[in-house]
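Weekly puzzle thread! Below is a chain. First person to post its structure in token form gets bragging rights.
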Amino acid sequence: MREDGRPFPPRPRLRRRLVRPMVLPTMLTLCNLACGFLAIAKAADAMAVPRLPGRPPEEMLYLLHSAGWLIFLGMVFDTLDGSVARLSGGTSAMGNILDSISDVVTFGLAPAFLAKCIAEGVGEMPDRKVTYWFSVFFALMAALRLARYSAHHEDPEEASLWFKGLPTPGAAGVIASLAILIYDRDFRPGSSVLRLLPWATLALGVLMVSKLPYAHFTNRFLKGRKPFTYLVLALAVLVLSLAWNFEVVLAIALMAYALSGPLVALFRRRDPRAAPAPAPAGKGEDGGKVQA
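Winning reply:
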């Protein structure tokens, strides 16, 4: 009450500021997350298929094949959400957090579980402890790499020509491409090769959190004006890939990219002036983060 006996006027009610996400970039990010979950579901369904020793059923191979393609589809959505967000000019912390969660599922949990299912279901890996813990290690390293990216999100990514460590989509792509190949009767890896997959997941996990330089192909070779020979060479590679076997070429290209980091580091050690310093850790892994 006031001194003259009149009551004070009522205080205005404080309104909570609601988060208003941008619809299209957020939907693309959620599609990425859905692809990761569906890849895990397909791999789990593959392990539930009845099988005989030494003869994996075609249904199992097809389900694992589908899980691999779902991870690649998640990469497409992961690239589109960043591009759409930049075109629409929307930025927010919610978009970055949602995108990181989606990437952990699609490029961390899904390929780790897929590698475990391939090694045990098709490769008939006898030691389940190795498949369990090496897959867990891959998922943890993917989460650490994406967290390292979030910690450096304020750094400019447009000028980044190098990654520090293997990007998570690249590591996931190696496992996904192998899942795609096991459905091809002509190029299907043997059981002895698939038993080495847990060790490959261990190596990929180490490469993700390493400081080895990996080229940012989008910024380095596709953005900006390039010589005419770039276009001719890109079209020639695409035509040859489609004419031969696109899935095999994709697997070889991803494996070569995963091995390129140690090779570039070795080349730089011999000639430090051969290439510029790599970008900050994890910068611009997918060409841009979604902004909701």
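Puzzle host: Confirmed. Bonus trivia for everyone else. The chain has a mean pLDDT of 80.
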